[in-house]
Amino acid sequence: MVVARGFEQVADAFAEVLRQARGGAAFSVVRRGRPLVELHGGLADPHTGRRWAPDTTAVLFSGTKGLTATVCALLTHRGLLDPEDPVAMYWPEFAAGGKAEVTVGQVLAHTAGLPYVERDEVPMLDNRACAAALATQSPLWEPGSRVSYHALTYGYLVDELVLRTTGRDTASHVESELNAIDGVDVRLRTPDRLAGRMARIVREDHYRLSTFLDDPVRRRIVERMYRVLTDDPELINSAAYRLAGSAAGGAVGSAASMARVYARLVDPRDPLVPTAVLALFTGTHSEGTDAINDRPLRFGLGYELADPIGTYGPAAVAFGHSGAGGGRHGAWPEHEVGFSFVTNEMCSEDIDTRATRLLAALNDCL
């Protein structure tokens, strides 16, 4: 446990989170490579009573997308990927279905109009098959005209771009490059030898997706979009899932690792990505009400940004990515801090205040 002087209020808020928990959690804050807060507790496996340990990891769900965005930022810095280029320049088959002009940036900013794979028979854990299916589809709307969260398809699309650009998939880049950061161990494919550290994902009673949405027609679309959560509640705890390499939701890691990744992105001494490239990726590229989910959104290129509902706390400038069930990972550039809240207890967004309380306490301490 680490609680730097002056950050006791964060520890108090975390203790309150644990008092109300059925599962477990961890919260970390890092500035310039130095941990200011590292807290963990509760049950890593409520079924067996196994406690959350310092090295416990968990499925990060869409927290993965922030890692994927970071890989894309690194490729942009190296001149291998340009957000203004058409996707079809790297992936010619993608031009089918009227998508010849869809840009890399539109894919990263969730405006491509491909929020689900139309062919339900395509295995959702087969990244290549899902990418091939998406290449044949037509967008649901004119690309760039609407924003709607691409829960799983973001991963299929971006992973195919990374593979076509470099010959290696996103999982390979995360393991070789992000794990080179001191103290970081995050993976999109978690081998058997590391599976014993993983927390078991559980859900609160009556867990609900898309809590901003009332429309029954679009609710059916949501069920197609989030098949990984709706088809089989135990899929997320399976070896098949942790080995699939999903660039949208397959990452496994700890709060300490995620906080260190984001801290390096905003460390002025040695930023992971050059300032100009990070500014491009964390500028506003889409915003508005989700065309399917009715949730307020604001995106950079792959990163979520500070939004009207306070996803990233009181800070006016923030970026990162949240995850289904309550995970929250990101950075406050003005404070030069990276932070991460990891939990194995999935709670519905409209009643989940855990990360919000922790970020409010952190803001008070800073």
What structural category do the secondary elements indicate?
Answer: alpha+beta
Unreliable stretches: none
Assign the CATH architecture: 3-Layer(aba) Sandwich
What is the CATH class name? Alpha Beta
Relative helix content: 25-40%
The CATH superfamily label reads DD-peptidase/beta-lactamase superfamily
CA radius of gyration: 19 Å
Tally of individual domains: 1
CATH topology: Beta-lactamase
Strand content: 15-25%
Number of strands: 14
Question: What sort of overall outline do the alpha carbons produce when their principal axes are compared?
Answer: globular
If you average the pLDDT, what whole number results? Answer: 95
- N-to-C order of helices and strands: EHEEEEHHHHHHHEHHHEHHEEEEEEEH
Helical region count? 14
Largest sheet: 8 strands, antiparallel
Distance between the termini: 19 Å
